[in-house]
Design goal:
Order of helices and strands: HHEEEEEEEHEHEEEHEEHEHHEHEEH
Distance between the termini: 36 Å
Number of strands: 17
Mean pLDDT: 95
Helix content: 25-40%
Low-confidence stretches: none
Radius of gyration: 23 Å
Shape: globular
Length: about 400
Amino acid sequence: MDITERFLNYTKFDTQSSEESETVPSTSKQLVFAEYLKKELEHEGLDNVEMDDKGYIYATLKANTKEQVPTIGFISHYDTSPDCSGADIKPQIVRNYDGSDILLRGERYDNIIMSPKKFPELLQHVGEDLIVTDGTTLLGADDKAGIAEIVQAMVYLQEHKEIKHGKIRIAFNPDEEIGMGARHFDVEKFGCEWAYTMDGGDVGELEFENFNAASAKITIKGVSVHPGYAKGKMVNANALAAELARMLPEDETPETTEGYQGFYHLLGITSNIEQAKMSYIIRDHDRDRFEDRKRFIQRCAEQMNEKYGEGTVECVVSDQYYNMKEKIEPDAMHVIDVVLRAMQEVGVSPKVKPIRGGTDGAQLSFKGLPCPNIFAGGINFHGPYEFVPIQSMEKAMQVIVKICQLVGEYNG
């Protein structure tokens, strides 16, 4: 089985996670794919394949060298984003892409087109073979491309025993898309000195800086009165929600920021006269500015209470993860150096950049497992314009193999 067939098989499974669930994993359909994946790993000859009751899968590729070298790991998540349907995915392959518009869905279905005018990143992949959607679902390259690359690399290493390597551990987990992927990850059981998540974007991306992240859940209490008799009595929670939203800086949102700039992002509002609920995420690469942002949104809630009465607005801020740079830079830069060398040796130009998001590797780094993020090749995640070049997946697989080889030659 080649990497394309492997990935396409994975897309047949709907593994969408859910922010509304309190179970682990958040959706039972993730376990259906996890069972399939566990059996595939066993079929491919990996050792110590196990899946716990929460859907976390661990497996081992035994060392084929007698040298004492570090045990390293590779990790990907198998859930897909709640932002877009992951059911009944119909992948299409555009062979030898020529740089023109791609018709995802024809005239009968409203002519859904992916154009380089809107998605100029397409032009970086002219001449390659692109796996795209049919315009109605996401593709699932985030992060089933990463899983396919890791599994294919393990198969390649077994077929090429001349490549000496130490013990390699791999793991696949649910619920990364809702920020819970590393919550139940057993670092001790994984038993690695360091690891890599294969969860980045375009070819060459290497990330060991990510946002500090928090959520803010805001509840606003209103008072419902017949509008004909509402003067001096009604408190319209809808209006208060809009007022609070306006208190946050309008130029500090995802759509107005880039690079290291942080933001407040309103995920959703459900409201009526009596009650409104607002869900925000707060992001910043700088830890001090991150703490300032949390304090600011709390202060906005306090100001609303000063204006409308104590208890009108409740704001609960919860930290989600922190910038892994704090754990990588002090004493784990050799973990980065290995990847840079591996990329260069397989002909990939490294693109070291901060993640404008999060990764399981961030939480794992704070749990004692240095875990930067390497490209998996997918682009335009979380929507119907997601695509992945087959050649990018192949390059990612080659990087994994080369990392294993270099660590197998590791001299400290």
